[in-house]
Amino acid sequence: MTTVQKIKEVEDEMARTQKNKATSYHLGQLKAKLAKLRRELLGPTGGGGGGGGLGFDVARTGIASVGFVGFPSVGKSTLMSKLTGTHSETSEIDFTTLTTVPGTLKVHGAPIQILDLPGIIEGANDGRGRGRQVIAVARTCNLIFIVLDVLKPLGDKTIIESELEAFGIRLNKKPPAITVKKKDKGGIAITNTVPLTKIDHDEIKAILSEYKLSNCDVAIRQPNATADDLVDVIEGNRVYIPAIYVLNKIDAISIEELDLLYKIPNSVPISSREWLNIDELMDIMWRRLDLVRVYTKPRGAPPDYSSPVVLRRGKSAVEDFCSAIHKEIAKQMKYAIVWGASAKHARGQKVGLEHVLEDEDVVHIAKK
Length: 368
Ligand SMILES: Nc1nc2c(ncn2[C@@H]2O[C@H](COP(=O)(O)OP(=O)(O)OP(=O)(O)O)[C@@H](O)[C@H]2O)c(=O)[nH]1
Ligand SMILES: [K+]
Ligand SMILES: [Mg+2]
Description:
Largest sheet: 6 strands, mixed
Organism: Postia placenta MAD-698-R-SB12
Number of strands: 16
Keywords: GTP-binding, Nucleotide-binding
Pfam families: MMR_HSR1 (PF01926), MMR_HSR1_Xtn (PF16897), TGS (PF02824)
Bound molecules: guanosine-5'-triphosphate, potassium ion, magnesium ion
Strand content: 15-25%
Radius of gyration: 24 Å
GO molecular function: GTP binding; GTPase activity
Protein name: OBG-type G domain-containing protein
């Protein structure tokens, strides 16, 4: 039996099994089995095929990247070409784009790389077409645009989400607040600071046993933690990426139909052909990228607001700011003065290399 067939078998058995007290151990086992099979499938020697990385290795530029994922002919290339001015072939024929086409877009002084990708279809992650390569590129992006055709958005949305999920991508989600600490002896100890509503001790034990974890401390601080959350923590190779649902081709529907579509969370209706509502899309893109702009203030001169140093959240300490300018600057720095949201007072605050900067802060570096 191939890995794909084994996955199908486990999925079928899960669908047949009703969740209740008596079945939770069994369901826990099945969920862990499924995660292991998927890992096998997606590994370097995975049975899924899909070809090598040909044409998918693009030079990564810019401070952050946005990948366009969607079914064929939803308008990904039309949007990417118009946004970046880089030509990417468009047509009414499916699978027009056959490789990753990169373009650059400057937003609030920050160069953002836009990656137009080939269309994917159901079964992409088990090797159909170039789906696996597309999803592998999406895994490395800082933000994903899931582009949907407004004439058939909901079915497509579910399929794309599950293809990305199966590849270990978690959309619009934070890593679960669960820790699993291995020990040499002592068996299994489960503690929870929140009530367990979606998982019970039997299911937790089944999952641990499937991963041969017979001595460990499990601590659950995640409200409504699920078996899948626990499996994600144990597997450990998940990526958590923000996603925006871009509902394209609104020029083809009525205002009444549009009102219904707005109810999809994290969605933005647009028309890439008629260039409608692109401003809103850009605003939301900027917010979800969550970048930190820092303005440099030379001694005795006003700050330079024209070209910010752009940093990523989580890598926005004064030290990161220094290395973004020149690798020697951190060594030469005596202290920095910071004005803005991260500073304690409006007059400016004297800080060191470890101080974390906020968006639109102004920084002066005093040298030794
Ligand atoms: N009505 C309408 N048609 C659009 C819009 N955007 C794109 N299209 C049309 O949809 C078709 C597909 O557009 P593409 O940009 O090639 O779509 P794609 O998603 O890149 O397609 P693949 O590369 O094949 O996956 C073309 O005929 C476009 O002109 C839109 O906003 N409204
Ligand atoms: K197309
Ligand atoms: Mg295309």
